[in-house]
Structures are given as C-alpha cells and as structure tokens.
Design brief:
Keywords: Hydrolase, Nucleotide-binding
Number of strands: 9
Catalytic activity: P(1),P(3)-bis(5'-adenosyl) triphosphate + H2O = AMP + ADP + 2 H(+)
Enzyme class: hydrolase
Distance between the termini: 27 Å
CATH topology: HIT family, subunit A
Bound molecules: adenosine monophosphate
Protein name: Bis(5'-adenosyl)-triphosphatase
Radius of gyration: 16 Å
CATH class: Alpha Beta
Number of helices: 4
Structural class: alpha+beta
Cofactor: Mn(2+)
Order of helices and strands: EEEEEHEEHEEHH
C-alpha cells in the first residue's frame, strides 16, 4: 500500500492509521509533541475537492485520532487546523487535518501555536524555519507507538479495518 502526500511518497512505517478514505501520518516537524496529520487518501489539494464521503471519513478519523493523541500525550485540549490553499499557509498541496494536543501553558501566548504551524516563520523579514526535521527512525517509532495504542484502545477489531470511528 502506498501513501501519497502531495508530491511525496510516504513510507508505510510513518503511517499509524488507515481507513477507507484517509490515513494518519506522524509529522516531520511537529509543532508540539503528538502533532499528527489526517490525510485524504486521494491526492487533492483543496478541502472543497473532497467528496461528501471523503469529508465524513476525514472528520470521523479526525475525531478518532484526536482522542488517541489527547490520551497518549496526556493533553487537555486540541488544536485542529486545515490550511486550505497556499495563501492560507498550506505548504503541502494535499488536504490534511492538523491535530495538535494542547496543554496548559504550553505556549506563553496561546495563539502562538498558529505561528508555529507556519512551515516558514518570518523573523525580521527573513525566512527562518527553526524546527529540525526528525529522522525516519524517530517518526517510525512514534507511528508504531500510536498504532499499538490505537489497536489496544479499540475493543472492536472491525472499527480498525472499516474506518468507522470507535467510541
Ligand atoms: P501545511 O503547511 O498546512 O501544508 O502542513 C504541512 C505539514 O506537513 C507540516 O506540519 C509539515 O511539518 C508536515 N510535513 C511536511 N513534509 C512531511 C513528511 N515528509 N512527512 C510528514 N510530515 C510532513
């Protein structure tokens, strides 16, 4: 099974969840621990390019993955974001939902998270991406953890294979 993310081919080792129309990807440059992406399996750029079925699946899986990362990363809240188009900050032209576990005082100013989501922060007029890409090994390790937590968490194996949201 191969996974497209815009122009990229994603190794299966970095994917922690697959449903009929979406998949879950660990992040190359997480803005906070547990920052993951739910990606449409069909490689389309804009949210409005998705069919009704794809929207349903993306958001149902978004709920499922939200519960997962909130629990695993011991968070209290979540930031959910879609940067829909280049002018909105989208850097990978393929629909994806960002899911970021949030904790009390994780940023001095709560809304600084939105600066962190920019793939290229501009500091004094200069592009300055401070976050270092993670190694393939580190990403695979996190995907393995999330995969196993997702498996243990669902008592109904069918929810894992058919992509319906578990409770
Ligand atoms: P956006 O700027 O909204 O398009 O978000 C792109 C996201 O994809 C950012 O969070 C990046 O860190 C992440 N990203 C870019 N390349 C990869 C990759 N090869 N594997 C996983 N995540 C990636």
């Amino acid at each position: 099974m191969s996974f497209r993310f815009g122009p990229l081919i994603i190794p299966q080792s970095q994917v922690f969840m697959v449903s009929r129309l979406s998949y879950g990807l660990v992040n190359l440059k997480p803005a906070v621990p547990g920052h993951v992406l739910v990606v449409s399996r069909r490689p389309v750029t804009r949210f409005n390019d998705l069919s009704a079925d794809e929207v349903t699946d993306l958001f149902q899986q978004g709920q499922r993955v939200s519960r997962l990362v909130e629990r695993v990363y011991k968070a209290d809240s979540l930031t959910l974001v879609i940067q829909d188009g280049k002018e909105a900050g989208q850097s990978v032209p393929h629909v994806h939902l960002h899911i970021l576990p949030r904790r009390k005082a994780d940023f001095a100013n709560n809304d600084d998270i939105y600066d962190e989501l920019g793939s290229r922060k501009r500091v004094r007029g200069v592009d300055n991406d401070e976050r270092v890409p993670r190694s393939a090994e580190e990403m695979a390790e996190e995907a393995e953890l999330l995969r196993s937590e997702l498996g243990e968490w669902s008592s109904d194996a069918s929810t894992l294979s058919d992509g319906r949201a578990s409770t």
